[in-house]
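Q: My labmate handed me this sequence with no annotations at all. I'd like to see what the chain might look like in three dimensions before we decide whether it's worth expressing. Could you predict it?
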Amino acid sequence: MIFPPNAAAQTLDFEFAALAEAKNYRAALLRDFGPFLHGSVLEVGCGIGQISSELLKIPEIHRLLSIEPDAAFCAQLHSRLPNHELLQGTVADLNSDSSWNAILSINVLEHIERDVEELSTYHRLLRSSKGALCLFVPARPELHAPIDSDFGHFRRYTRPELTRKLRDAGFTIAKLRYYNFVGYLLWWLNFCVLEKRSFNVAAVRLFDRAIFPLTHGFETHICSPPIGQSLMAVAFAQTSLDLR
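A: Here is what I predict for the chain of 244 residues:
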């Protein structure tokens, strides 16, 4: 994950503090990705390990390697999970012969300028096992706000753009949908209209406990939203014939 000057400190203060309160949101993401997380799993851009600690509880994951380029984040993760396998660096630092059953990338790809090259590297790491990429990214360019720039986001994705980039990298897409319609509206109001530059942790807690479980249940079981705050994708490093 690549940040501009001072962005790492802002992320620790605001993004990670808010994520710590988003317990239902985090659990829902792992439920949605759970069927594809097994065997050897690579977590890209693990931050301070808030997702890592949950992944370690999944019995189907036999090996979990977390990668994070920021030294301060790695130090915090190591202090929280001292026995966890952690690499300070990027996927480019992995052995070229390494193979993984799944790669998990949550709110990372938007930080990488050459995102198709990054996706192509994921494809190479998954190819021999025909593994799954579990990808979650910010959506909708019209939501790009000052706080996105603060966090070093190069872009917010549309569904057609992400579809094209995954296919250009060699992936076959199994699932790709917008995620969190209410979050779209709240992000637009708070960060585009009001131009706030930080998260309100109490507001995140309220949304996570009172609103998100209902809206996520509706989106999951009744109707996928036409737009959303984020995009969720599952894509395989295999051909359409392999999926039959």
